[in-house]
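Exercise 3.2. Students should predict the tertiary structure of the chain below and write it as structure tokens, then compare their answer with the key that follows.

Predict this chain's 3D structure.
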Amino acid sequence: MFQLARRGNCLAKVSVCLAVFLGVTITMSPQEAAAQGSRPTVSVTSPADGATYLIDPTLRLEFQTLRLRAVAPTRVTWFVDELRVAPEWQLARGSHTVTAMDEQGRRESVRIFVK
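Answer key:
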């Protein structure tokens, strides 16, 4: 585990990008959020709202998954179309609502399309 010192707004963006690249969930304590002058929230970083994914007919379906990622002050539970799922979700054709919910009940949802 590592910790980075904050230097203005720039480091926060770099930290989020690094976490998205590594496939981890960033957590922020309520004290850190208060120091930033904001209430802790949940933010889905992947998938993007409105994203479209294509199923490759040449690959087995079990290998076609989407890594779900979020920034949240506590641990995140994932839901797709209101069904609880693992953070690595197997693609399924159709329109889907992906929701990240933290331990305090805060949530954010995005819509995706799989063809």
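Discussion points: Confidence is low (pLDDT under 50) at residues 1-22. The beta strands are 43-46, 52-53, 65-67, 69-71, 76-80, 83-85, 88-90, 94-102, 107-114.
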